[in-house]
Design brief:
Pfam families: Amino_oxidase. InterPro entries: Amino_oxidase (IPR002937), Flavin_MAO (IPR050703). The protein is about 35% helix and about 25% strand. It is α/β, with parallel strands linked by helices. The strands form five sheets. Strands 1, 2, 10, 11, 12, 13, 14 and 22 form an eight-stranded mixed β-sheet that branches. It has a seven-stranded mixed β-sheet with strand order 8-7-17-18-19-16-20.
């Protein structure tokens, strides 16, 4: 049994970034991935439903201008980007189910608009005061962690539509949980990790660009550079460790190393049996984290018909089954693609339907925004990560009430020779690919420092 310098479990962006940086530094590295592909929560699929091949990004896909770690890596890997289409008016649907166009100001009453602005200001102030890597250090953190975002919003504002719009951006759109299911502190961390809550409100910021060929190109290119150091179909079930090193078991095979990086979501760490057991607080911390639920839907049409009507394809409504939708047409594609999202309790509801009824209800929801043409796509693709054991949900994990202040600090703590990390435990770039790049880079730098100490 050969001994490596470092074993990495997980060929998502965190694991592959860490492995690549360690390999660059001369470390002998092997990456073990349970799936038959690299990328983790990034995946690009090709379908010929439309009569000719069409590419759909099933997982994460957007690049924001503040995501400088990801942007730097894209430049290093030579992966070009292109802007999301954004010419034209956007659409908003309120309680009356009517689609209203707007270019700048949200088409709600002046009092609701003012209430949204005031809540945004308060969240921006809290986010500016927080280090997203250490949210438990924010003043009044324990109180904010003890109440749900829904409760906090009700304490701050008596305008229901304003509250529901703010909750939309932090709950269904980001943490993919209802606003009563996560703490106000967790919501502030989500905002702080993106630079401000205002950034989350601005689709031109948070959904700025896409990668040519899809964001999975990042892990694919990293894996190409790592070569045979990346081994697929290697489902790690047991890790034996001492202060001197680890032995990692995959079926009847075993790998030894001086250091181990567990680069999988916190909830997936529990699939691995450790000998000796991890400290109790490591296990308990992860037991209080869970994924949100979201169904990502993409519908392709013969043309991007909404553009001819002067629409940019952006639409949202806090009371709709599809709470947000965007023009997702790839660069150079003559056919038009809309992407929409069904989240949290709505994801529960459609998940209980058969495939045809689910498709019909989702297309009906798109038609609420874009009209009858939206009901008749030439291709239709759903991605539902909650039914995949090695993920279990999307987009990332978050704590239940009170968990962030009790156990958040545990998640990045090493145990003997073992390091843990994923985008779920990032500060800046929390739950985004940018966060995965940052965490992978930080882990590699830390292991490099320990190796030369």
């Amino acid at each position: 049994m050969n001994t490596h310098d470092v074993i990495v479990i997980g060929a998502g962006v965190t694991g592959l970034t860490a492995a690549w940086r360690l390999a660059e530094a001369g470390q002998e590295v092997v990456v073990l991935e349970a799936r038959d592909r690299v990328g983790g929560r990034l995946r690009t699929d090709v379908t010929d439903q439309a009569g000719a091949p069409a590419s759909f990004e099933i997982g994460g896909q957007w690049v924001s201008p503040d995501q400088d770690a990801l942007i730097s890596l894209l430049a290093e890997l030579g992966l070009p980007t292109y802007p999301r289409h954004r010419d034209g008016d956007s659409l908003y649907v309120g309680r009356d189910r009517a689609a209203r166009r707007f270019a700048e100001d949200l088409p709600v009453s002046p009092s609701t608009r003012a209430a949204i602005a005031e809540l945004t200001k308060k969240l921006d102030e809290l986010a500016a005061a927080m280090d997203p890597a250490r949210p438990w250090e924010l003043a009044d953190a324990r109180h904010l962690d003890s109440i749900s975002l829904r409760t906090w919003l009700e304490e701050q504002c008596d305008d229901a539509e304003a509250r529901d719009n703010i909750a939309l951006y932090l709950g269904p759109a980001m943490l993919t949980k209802p606003a009563h299911a996560f703490s106000a502190l967790q919501a502030v961390q989500m905002a702080a990790s993106a630079g401000s809550f205002s950034n989350l409100l601005d689709a031109d910021v948070i959904l700025d660009r896409r990668v040519v060929g899809g964001l999975q190109s990042v892990p694919i290119e990293l894996a190409r550079r790592l070569g045979d150091r990346v081994r697929l179909g290697q489902d790690v079930t047991h890790v034996a460790w001492t202060e001197e090193g680890v032995v990692v078991h995959v079926g009847d095979d075993a790998y030894a190393a001086r250091r181990l990086v567990v680069a999988v979501p916190p909830t997936v760490v529990r699939r691995i049996r450790f000998t000796p057991e991890l400290p109790a607080e490591q296990r308990i911390a992860r037991e209080h984290q869970s994924f949100g639920l979201v169904v990502k839907v993409q519908a392709m049409y013969p043309t991007p018909f909404w553009r001819a009507d002067g629409l940019d394809g952006t639409a949202f409504g806090p009371y709709e089954l599809v709470h947000e939708a965007y023009d997702n047409t790839p660069e150079g594609e003559s056919r038009g693609v809309l992407v929409g999202f069904v989240s949290d309790v709505n994801a529960d509801a459609v998940g209980a339907l058969d495939a045809e009824e689910r498709r019909e209800r989702i297309l009906d929801a798109l038609a609420t925004y874009f009209g009858e043409q939206a009901r008749h796509p030439i291709a239709y693709v759903e991605s539902d990560w909650q039914h995949q054991e090695l993920t279990g949900g999307a987009y990332g994990t978050s704590f239940d009430l009170g968990g962030l202040t009790r156990w958040g600090h545990v998640l990045r703590q090493p145990v003997g020779p073992i390091e843990f990390g994923s985008s779920d435990v990032a500060g800046l770039g929390f739950q985004h690919v940018d966060g995965a790049v940052r965490v992978g880079t930080e882990i590699a730098a830390g292991l490099g420092a320990r190796a030369t100490a």
